[in-house]
Description:
Layout: H1 14-23, H2 36-47, H3 63-73, H4 76-93, H5 100-108
Helix pairs in contact: 1-5, 2-4
Amino acid sequence: xxxxxxxxxxxxxxxxxxxxxxxxxxxxxxxxxxxxxxxxxxxxxxxxxxxxxxxxxxxxxxxxxxxxxxxxxxxxxxxxxxxxxxxxxxxxxxxxxxxxxxxxxxxxx
Length: 109
């Protein structure tokens, strides 16, 4: 059973990536309020990958750049795990409640 009740290939478009970047606050190099430790633990436990491996070392190596590298290399299943984990853990990793636009983006992507 798919995580979102849908079966489709996830091909993130440029527009979807830009919207995700805005919702995740990535313009500063950060992703939500993740620390290096919580970012690493989230990816290991939720997605099943080591986000600090060299294959995700893009640009400056910031959390935002690692997220961008992940989007480009991830399988559909890994992207679904990421989006589901972000939905479930938003209140933990953000100082603000999830916006309706962020929820809709994570569910529909």
